[in-house]
């Protein structure tokens, strides 16, 4: 086989978020890859604590979590981590207090709402992660633990835009879910899934030439562009698809199975 390792996005790619479904033929496709000797890895915006429902059905060889900022091996040992600087975290907390933004932090293996509890609650309910959610009314958990990602909700993003302009060390990604206003992921500016994948490839003595990546969203662009084969889901925007080698069908239309079947057919030739 030409390639050795494949990285799968979760939400909108392998996982149907709103109804907690992984298609049986997608699981079959993963097993087909493993039987052929491929390493199958997760590359997701989710922290480990929000992977529970997925891990009940499939286990991965390595985990690129929180958009490349928290990387674990198959036994959940840390390979690498890129947390947000503590001073910047404090500034995010103050911003959200001052402007009454909804705020939630991912700490690698824990997620805490800091304010705007119910909007964040409904967001997490949509993502099927309520059982991994905690509420920190004191807003102090970040003082003792590393923060890898902030989720901010706001109806008026003018103040957030100004904050981001003053903090070029951060980037914001719009989360495409139904919310009352805007919902953003906030990360280190130089973090993306491809940075986490680099660590996994180094650990396995592999390169991007050995790599296949499948994803559907803007946070997948880096890995789709760098992979020897980058596959966009059918539901991806034309912009995201422009960074991939080709597209498969959507997650509702057997997208993973169709992509893997095509890849294995070409690899066998």
TrEMBL record:
Pfam families given in the database record: Hydrolase_3 (PF08282)
UniProt EC number: 3.1.3.-
GO cellular component: cytosol
Keyword Hydrolase: yes
Database matches in InterPro entries: Cof, HAD-like_sf, HAD-SF_hydro_IIB, HAD_sf
MF annotations from Gene Ontology: magnesium ion binding; phosphatase activity
Gene coding for it: yidA_4
Protein name stated in the entry: Cof family protein
Keywords, in A-Z order: Hydrolase
